[in-house]
Specification:
By secondary structure, the chain is α+β, with helices and mostly antiparallel strands. The protein has four domains: 120 residues, Immunoglobulins (Immunoglobulin-like, Sandwich); 199 residues, TIM Barrel (Alpha-Beta Barrel); 98 residues, Immunoglobulin-like, CATH 2.60.40.10; 76 residues, Immunoglobulin-like (Sandwich), CATH 2.60.40.10. The chain is built from nine helices and 33 strands. It has a five-stranded antiparallel beta sheet, with no helix packed on it. Helix 1 runs parallel beside helix 2 and helix 5 packs parallel to helix 7. The protein is elongated. 38% of the residues are buried.
Length: 505
């Protein structure tokens, strides 16, 4: 037990007690914090409160965490002082970021007389080794996005975790952001390391900000025709916003309608992120991490992966695929197609990898199979396919990576979308309500369909996947989880399906 006059440490204590008074007004608590630390293999929580008393008095002080409890009696002198108590936790589970374990956190409390302070803490050890973040001795490959305060912090952080993001970059993290990240297993970079928040690990690494082009928010978020016209007017102005249209012209045939323009801008930003992140993930031993663009903001035209209402853009679904701990990557370098499989998890993985070249009618030109065991933090080049003798505007590559418990797929066009000879896929869908808030969508196609996106209209929710390619020989089943009770008839009325062929027709 420590009771001593207030010193400079008072200035860094999180002021979350709000100047709470005891019932008899004899003592005022101006701040409280809980600080976990490890010593000799044992975790202990030191709880501190800055208090001010108007008289000398004796108090009972109790600290508690996860069933462990320490109680002592202390005599306080009149004036301001820091009071602390320590509680050891014998069975502490460690806090890990997304993809490397569970973000265990524990509630703890400190009682002084009839006043109680509460906090949530996590136990973890942070080190930086040769530019790589290590948490509890495990090397972490950072998969980041840039944070911009935009409201609804908890929902936005949850969406980040659902997209396999394990770090957020913020110049001035708020307490609300730290608390949400603590529970979600998200690392906060850009602030200072703070033992009271397991998510706060400081900076330690510089990640390249990818050049992700801005995209338009989904059509259903435009509240009126006037608002849509204002957005179209912005696109016609000189400057960076007009570059959206100019950039699209290099990749796609110009869309005929506004909703197709929305789709292609979102697809372009996803392509930018795929190119940037893929090049970093194939060199995990060198790069130590990757970043996509802003997570969420309120602008109608932005590089954010979430729309102003929190709904996922195509970029966010692409991020989830890119940041999956185990995935295939296809990279074109000049006239060569490079075939990689990446494992940035903390355990080895035994995989099967198959790669096929097909034309847009569905006919197979080439097929290759590989088996391997990937070590943690390994990106392995399995093969190189020379494209010089292939009619690149008539073919695409399909890769499938599988283990006993998962299946991941990746498609890549071998030429610029505006040049390839896509066929009308004639996509069909069948919707089935499978739960109070869930709807299953079965997609089939007569010809290969690329970058299929389902728009749920005004019904808010998240898809199991929404950057989909559908082949004639394999139907795709997508699950939509609505935020409220799902109305199947309403969903079928509002649902729209977009794909690369229809967007450029």
């Amino acid at each position: 037990m420590l009771a001593h006059p207030a010193v400079s440490s008072y200035d860094i204590i999180n002021k979350n007690a709000g100047g709470t008074m005891t019932d008899d007004n004899s003592m005022k608590v101006s701040s409280f914090r809980a600080l976990p630390y490890e010593k000799d293999g044992r975790w202990t929580v030191r709880m501190e409160a800055v208090i001010e008393t108007d008289k000398d008095a004796e108090y009972t002080v109790t600290g508690e965490i996860h069933g462990a409890c320490t109680t002592e009696t202390v005599r306080l002198e009149k004036g301001k002082q820091v009071l602390s108590i320590e509680v050891s936790e014998e069975k502490a589970e460690l806090w890990y970021p997304k993809g490397y374990g569970y973000p265990h956190v524990y509630p703890c409390s400190m009682r002084i007389g009839d006043w109680t302070g509460n906090a949530v803490i996590g136990f973890r050890k942070v080190e930086w080794k040769n530019g790589q973040l290590c948490i509890n001795g495990t090397g972490i490959y950072i998969k980041a996005a840039y944070w911009k305060d935009s409201g609804d912090t908890e929902r936005t952080v949850r969406s980040a975790a659902d997209a396999n993001i394990n770090a957020l970059i913020s110049e001035n993290p708020s307490e609300e952001l730290y608390r949400a990240a603590d529970h979600a297993g998200i690392i906060i970079l850009g602030g200072k390391e703070d033992p009271s928040h397991p998510s706060a690990v400081g900076t330690g690494i510089e990640l390249e900000h990818p050049a992700v082009s801005p995209s338009l928010q989904s059509c259903h978020l435009y509240r009126s025709d006037d608002e849509r016209k204002e957005t179209e007017a912005l696109l016609s102005e000189p400057g960076s916003r007009r570059n959206i249209i100019l950039g699209l012209g290099k990749l796609f045939r110009r869309p005929a309608t506004f909703d197709r323009l929305v789709y292609l801008t979102q697809l372009k930003s996803a392509f930018d992120a795929i190119d940037a992140v893929s090049l970093r993930r194939i060199r995990p031993e060198e790069t130590k991490g990757a970043a996509t663009a802003i997570l969420r903001d309120g602008r109608p035209i932005s590089e954010a992966s979430l729309s102003p209402d929190g709904s996922w853009k195509i970029l966010h679904y692409a991020t989830r695929l890119l940041y999956a701990p185990l995935c295939p990557l296809l990279v074109i370098e000049g006239t060569r197609l490079m075939i990689y499989a990446v494992n940035d998890s903390s355990r080895e993985e035994k995989i099967e990898l198959s790669v096929k070249l097909r034309d847009f009618h569905g006919s197979k030109k080439d097929a290759r199979e590989y088996s391997a065991t990937l070590q943690p933090m390994e990106a392995r080049l399995f093969d190189e396919i020379e494209l010089g003798r292939i009619m690149r505007d008539e073919y695409f590559c399909y890769a499938k990576l599988s283990t006993k418990s998962l299946l991941r797929e990746r498609n890549i066009l071998l030429d610029t979308p505006s040049r390839v000879k896509l066929q009308d896929p004639h996509i069909r869908s069948v919707c089935t309500k499978t739960g109070p808030r869930s709807i299953s969508i079965k997609l089939t196609a007569e010809k290969p369909a690329f970058y299929v996106m389902i728009d749920s209209g005004n019904i808010r929710g998240v898809f199991s996947d929404n950057l989909i390619s559908v082949r004639p020989s394999a139907e795709k089943n997508v699950v939509f989880i609505a935020e409220e009770e799902a109305d199947l008839e309403k969903y079928e009325r509002e649902m729209r399906i977009m794909d690369l062929y229809s967007a450029m027709s």
